[in-house]
């Protein structure tokens, strides 16, 4: 578990009414199916059960509980490292970072790399790269509530948004409707308490990458963790690999599916280049080489961008995510 950064506690951040023992909470649930889902949780002490599982009765309740348990289970191997003392998980959901520029230039891959698991605690929201079901992958970030100016939830657009200090805004699409409604009240209350309370949560910027080994906040564009000395992958390394062989840099980052797709795209570009250069004239050959160069440079730029979105320990290189 992370070292306690606080010299005192703040009652505003710790709501005793939510600190219900797991067995007590489960014993109040009538559905055997839901009880089975909850009892299968690998960790229990770090959870605020009443806020995490707001629906335990009625149509769709079992599916809602199963969805949240699935997301929480993906944190099993890192929960002790991820949370600070007195920090508890109060809500989880999933969504996708909405970036117009990335969608324009990267298309489907923008959705793939921006899928996010949200872990709302009593101090901050932890954002973790995830799969389509919200199961955690490796890259992580944090936004302490004290660094948020506003939180919004769009009922029509299906999105949520964090407005941070210095005017930066992060918008996420694909958040389930019920979750958006609950978060609108929950997060706004946390922001108000954070701005009036006395706790200064450890951070460097409004949105910090977290070390993939010890989960400590890391300075942006830093390639060594101050807390555990873990070394991170420098974006130019996988970018150079992709410049030579498209897809190789993504394979290095653990993006196996993306790497395979880009490699076949590279083979297709070679076929096009051969066709263009088949005329045999100097301009035809130059044009054929230009096709390959453009494809390689584009893939290298995309790989550099993806690698720079967060921090990834060198020990995770070449390992599928």
CATH topology of the largest domain: PH-domain like
* Largest sheet features: 8 strands, antiparallel
Classify the helix fraction into a percent range.
40-55%
Would you state the CATH class of the largest domain?
Answer: Mainly Beta
The CATH architecture classification of the largest domain is: Roll
- The chain-level structural class is alpha+beta
Task: Write out the strand line-up for the largest beta sheet, numbering strands in chain order.
Answer: 5-6-7-1-2-3-4-8
H/E element sequence = HHHHHEHHEEEEEEHEHHHH
Whole-number average pLDDT?
A: 89
Any idea what the shape is? elongated
Poorly predicted segments? 6-14
**Cα separation of the termini:** 23 Å
Count of DSSP E strands? Answer: 8
The gyration radius over C-alpha positions equals: 22 Å
The percentage of residues in β strands lies in: 15-25%
CATH superfamily of the largest domain: Pleckstrin-homology domain (PH domain)/Phosphotyrosine-binding domain (PTB)
């Amino acid at each position: 578990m992370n070292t306690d950064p606080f010299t005192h506690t703040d009652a505003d951040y710790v709501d005793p009414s939510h600190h219900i023992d797991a067995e007590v909470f489960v014993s109040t649930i009538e559905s055997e199916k839901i009880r089975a889902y909850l009892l299968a949780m690998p960790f229990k002490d770090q959870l605020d059960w009443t806020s995490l599982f707001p629906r335990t009765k009625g149509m769709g309740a079992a599916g809602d509980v199963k969805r949240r348990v699935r997301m929480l289970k993906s944190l099993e191997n890192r929960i002790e490292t991820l949370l600070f003392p007195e920090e508890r998980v109060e809500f989880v959901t999933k969504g996708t970072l909405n970036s117009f520029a990335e969608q324009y230039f990267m298309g489907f891959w923008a959705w793939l790399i921006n899928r996010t698991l949200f872990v709302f605690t009593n101090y901050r929201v932890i954002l973790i790269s995830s799969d389509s079901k919200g199961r955690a992958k490796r890259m992580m970030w944090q936004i302490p509530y004290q660094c948020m100016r506003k939180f919004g939830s769009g009922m029509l657009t299906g999105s949520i948004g964090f407005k941070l200090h210095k005017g930066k805004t992060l918008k996420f699409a694909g958040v389930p409707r019920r979750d958006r409604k609950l978060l609108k009240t929950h997060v706004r209350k946390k922001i108000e308490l954070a701005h009036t309370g006395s706790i200064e949560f450890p951070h460097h910027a409004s949105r910090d990458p977290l070390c993939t080994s010890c989960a400590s906040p890391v300075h942006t564009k830093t390639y060594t963790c101050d807390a555990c000395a873990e070394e991170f992958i420098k974006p130019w390394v996988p970018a150079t690999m992709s410049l030579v062989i498209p897809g190789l840099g993504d394979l290095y980052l653990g993006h196996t599916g993306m790497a395979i797709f880009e490699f076949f795209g590279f083979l297709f570009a070679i076929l096009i280049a051969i066709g263009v250069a088949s005329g045999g004239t100097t301009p035809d050959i130059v044009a054929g080489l230009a096709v390959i160069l453009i494809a390689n440079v584009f893939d290298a730029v995309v790989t550099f961008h993806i690698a720079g979105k967060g921090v990834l320990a060198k020990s995770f290189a070449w390992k599928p995510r």
